[in-house]
Design brief:
The chain has about 350 residues and is α+β, with helices and mostly antiparallel strands. It is built from 10 helices and 15 strands.
Length: about 350
């Protein structure tokens, strides 16, 4: 492909200068996206990328330990869009196990060719496949249980989706345009199946390259609420939990390092699992029963009145107000037995 075309829209995003390589205080606890210009401009991989794509590939492959990686490959007709097929019973790409150095060299080889296929290696765990890279290209977020991944490929467009963890994404090679939508815009994004997704997360069915407002009229409201930014190598962005975001990789070779962490312990599980179970057990109940369960969820989950356990003896009240790892394990075991 000559380039991935995209319809860019959205208001500019808030920005902070971060030449010191330190995330400004308060950003990681915020609820709004923030661009962090120059946050990782000092990284060796960014210096290599600014020299050339070949220098960037040579730098990355110094750390590669030869383990196969999962790659997405789409034909030129996909125009870089990682998506479903026409009937939404499959996808417009194939997945295969490849060697990362072979994939990166292939991207370099076809960089000047028209009608390129799309190569996409996503969410590759750095310690598992590029040991030592994070020692030379480090970012201290002051968080525990941070998952560090790298995303590599040529030009592509990833549909709007959300992630449960908070996220700092650092552009290391090429340019990437992020378009973000607030969580309350979910109803205007025309989300696809929850149980059948291209990469694990539900995605918007709207083509970000060419939004069809006749088919998806409410997306016009989402466009009005969107914010956008283009990152260059060395820039980063903080994407808060549950914000929908689309990412367009703009260059012949693109690289991104991201850090995911959550504000609650991992033993509490992932809310998406609760959503799927609620769809299974509540969605098809009669209206009156659904409303009764909605009231229970509001009381125990979403509203949580301060005095909701005041009528219980103090030891029982304390137990009900706390969620320890032991209690979480007991609840999971109970759920597992009931689901059988």
């Amino acid at each position: 492909m000559d380039s991935v075309t995209s319809t860019e829209f959205g208001a500019p995003m808030a920005e902070l200068a971060c030449s010191s390589g330190i995330v400004p205080e308060g950003v990681l606890n915020g609820a709004e996206p923030v661009v962090l210009r120059g946050l990782v401009a000092h990284w060796p991989i960014v210096h290599a990328a600014n020299e050339s794509n070949r220098a960037a590939v040579d730098y990355l492959t110094r750390f590669y330990n030869g383990k196969p990686v999962n790659a997405f490959l789409a034909t030129p007709e996909a125009n870089g869009r990682i998506f479903y097929n026409e009937t939404v019973d499959g996808f417009n790409f194939a997945q295969s196990q490849v060697y990362l150095d072979d994939a990166l060299n292939k991207i370099i080889d076809v960089a000047d060719q028209p009608n390129q296929p799309t190569y996409y290696v996503g969410s590759l765990e750095i310690p598992q496949h590029l040991p030592g890279f994070d020692a030379e290209n480090a970012l201290d977020l002051g968080q525990t249980s941070v998952r560090e991944g790298i995303w590599l490929g040529n030009q592509s467009v990833v549909a709007p989706h959300f992630d449960f963890p908070d996220n700092i994404a650092c552009c290391i090679i090429g340019e990437r345009t992020f378009t973000l939508f607030p969580p309350e815009q979910q109803a205007n994004l025309y989300v696809g199946p929850l149980d059948f997704t291209p990469a694990g997360q539900p995605i918007s069915m709207v083509d970000m390259n060419n939004p069809d407002l006749d088919r998806f009229p409410r997306f016009a409201e989402a466009m009005n609420a969107a914010i956008t930014v283009t990152l260059k190598p060395g820039d980063a962005i903080f994407v808060p939990s549950m914000w929908w975001h689309s990412v367009a990789s703009k260059s012949a070779l693109n690289g991104l390092v991201n850090y995911w962490w959550r504000s609650t312990p991992a033993y509490l599980g992932v809310p998406t699992n609760a959503l799927l179970h609620a769809i299974l057990s509540i969605k098809y109940l009669p209206k009156e029963q659904r409303e009764a369960w909605q009231a229970l969820f509001n009381h125990y989950v979403f509203e949580q009145p301060d005095d909701m356990y005041d009528h219980l003896p103090a030891p029982v009240k304390q137990k009900q107000n706390q969620m320890s790892e032991l209690t979480a394990r007991k609840l999971k075991a109970l759920l597992s037995s009931k689901l059988k």
